[in-house]
Amino acid sequence: MSADYEPRIVGFLCNWCTYAAADTAGISRMEQPPNVDIIRVMCSGRVDPVFILKAFAEGADGVIVSGCHPPGDCHYNSGNYKTFRRMPLVEALLEQYGIEKERFHWGWISGAEAPKWAQLVRDFTEQVRALRPLNWKRELESKEE
Amino acid sequence: MADNGKLKLGLYWAASCGGCDIAILELREKILDLDVAADILFWPVAMDFKYKDVEAMPDGHIDVCLFNGAIRTGENEHIAHLLRQKSKMLVAFGSCSHLGGIPGLGNFFDRRSIFERVYLEAPSVDNPEGILPQTSYQLPEGEVIIPKFYNTVKTLAQVEDVDYFVPGCPPQAPQIWTVIEAILGGQLPPKGSVVGANEKTVCDECEHNREEKHIKKFYRPHEIIPEPERCLFDQGILCAGPATRGGCGALCPSVNMPCRGCYGPPPNVIDQGAALLSAVASVVDADTEEEAARIVGEIVDPVGTFYRFGLPASLLHRRKLEEGS
Amino acid sequence: MRKISIDPITRLEGHGKIEIFLDGEGNVANAYLVIPELRGFEKFAEGRPVEEMPRITPRICGVCPEAHHIASAKACDAVYHVEVPPTGRKLREILYSAFFVADHTVHFYILGAPDFVLGPDAPPAERNILGLIHKVGLEIGGRVISCRGMGMDIVGMLGGKTVHPVGALPGGVSKAINEEERAQIEAWGHELVEFGQFGLQLFHDVVLANEAYLDMILSDTFTAPMYYMGLVDERNLVNFYDGKVRVVDPEGNEFVKYAPEEYLDVIAERVEPWTYLKFPYLKGVGWKGFVTGMDSGIYQATPLSRLNAADGMTTPQAQEAYEHFYETMGGKPVHGTLATHWARLIELLYAAERIVELATDPEITDPHVRNVPTETPDEGVGIVEAPRGTLTHHYITDERGIVQKCNLIVGTTNNYAPMSISIKKAAQAFIKEGQVSEGLLNRVEMAFRSYDPCLGCATHTLPGQMPLEVLVRDAEGNVVDVLRQNID
Prior knowledge:
By secondary structure, chain B is of the alpha/beta class. Chain B has twelve helices and ten strands. Chains in contact: A-B, B-C.
């Protein structure tokens, strides 16, 4: 059953780095499965933890947050500093909520690292595929009482 | 309104501790004014009206129902639907009905694991036959029925249509009175509003001195003795004030204890815990990933702390249920 | 069998219903007090930082949150092996004593007094706080509200909030008091001592002076000799905050005296499938069913049992009241459940005297009120007397102080079996041959009421209407008779 489902993954990518890499990867026709729905944000520091929680709550099986490499690449100087201060706490939250850590990836991919993006998409899709669909709302409803 | 011009009031408690009912007592002498203005038609904790009396009322007979307590059992939900039907206005009163409250922490677990602990595993329990409570049981004399214990705690709004929300664990007396006056005077904001609180955060009412925060280490409240004049959060003690709606008077900080968020999220915040997480992360003084991870890694029980009163109301509602729940 | 359901029980803290089954002759075969609620604190405590337990456990009961707050703080002290500085301990005890005054006030004046001041057979329309005020004067209602307020304001001063106070944590309390606060607490304390004496005088003038009431208190229906439990200090005198738990047998002799960490050697809890609440009993005697006496492990934990289990009170006026109580009632121990109301008033006076004693203690404004724990946390038990009974909090943590296991035996729980028995006795006494009378309605409630404080409040000023509906069902569950009181 796990093998049959197509994971739905939401990716929050920063405009200047990872989004550019993803763009390049696409244009270059690097092979990637289509499972990642990309949401472009201006900076990974824009990613409010609530986006990640909402993605899972609304049906995502996996979530990616990716931005520019600290310390020096952030287009806004220190936006990515906010990212790395928040994300460990988001990981801790997800763990306590029972969402497997394999469903959430955050990190840094620069605009010049298109192959790295494509690889991440391939690897992460398979990683999430190996888990069951999360189906957060539907699971909750079916086991309601 | 009744023919005598008095407001027809109902109060009910679901999965509750009774604190919201004592909060009504905290009106002190104003209780006598309330008695002049209102007839209480249903208040199981204080008066002898029964469910049958509510069932016998015409629909919409009760003008205002103050409903406290979370939805934990089938009976809680059933009465929520009944009171909605019989009330013109249904108010979620207090943290439990508003957000899930402390009983909402039960959403880390499910019915099976709770029953196992309470009735089988607890060290004082003497239960060699492994008896568990049953929703229906045949005694020698006849049948006894008890309500179903749900897997998941819910807020009132998650099971019924709610008109207003009065936050707090419990709501503080001055705000309760403000809400009553607003009801009596017909001066309520749009349906679905939070009433009995202000539009800012607890920090606004807190009298501690705030400076810029650069936290290198978080402390649990018993680990240090803070300087009483300074903001507790400045000193590394996690305080939910920045992510909590104000109106309570910042009573906990007034005795040097950090806020834990019982008045719920500030206006326009949909997930209180995520907001508090952001607030906490934003004051972490770290310039490398490793240092940031180390500093926030010291925070224990993040979900239980950031969502102390609002786990059921959070976006995810509860910890994932296991197979066989 | 025909079944009479009283659902829900009202004017109590908590959800409950009574199921009364009648035999073929219409006499009571059995009566069950069914508790349909559970929230699961003993489980969802797991994973919580232990120092948060004094803020989480008060939500077990919003009528006595202070009891949980303090018991929990004491358990945390034990978990961390930390000693509380003397001033910190005394401030906790002031908060606790003030709360005791407020809580006992609510129970006696608004719940219990009407039955006595007006009488159990008084028209229901008069049998409430309004009727009481009419009988003894409007001044009383105002004084009750105001004195309860003083007690609560002391709680608020020390604990921030009056309902669900904060401020007690492992090692002490979070805030010291200054001279102005101290003076205020002392002033209120004196007023509350006077209020305490007033209550006892009221009880004398209105209850004890009336033979009918006295008979009721001494009557067999409301009497059930059993074991009695209460916290005592090293001189075996009543102490709500600290000490050892002493249990005396139905004849008043000490059966066991245990330290908090020994509670598992003494108490066990039974589970029944028809209710969510467990039944504690004394392991040393054993569970013998729903009977009381020397051979049954059922015990009670109430103001009455506390006085029975102790040798006296530590404060002078309360001690005088204590001696007078036993003289009047014919010696120790007293078994009449309704005498609990009197015991409650003696405790109210004691708590008020303690406020004054502590507020005039030379150390009370000392700024050193908390010690930071240094030991590795592991396990601890904290016990206090809640107004409704002995309260036990037991936590096991990991080395970071995160709760791994939690066990709680809560005040009212101690009394679940005794209450069940009292209700059955009352039901059997008043329901005969299928005749359900109005006397049942009130007297069954009176049997219950003396065990538990409740939220009856000044708004319960509806003219005594105790709307009550009793359904009599045949064996198929069809309603064959409906008895109503004050329902149109």
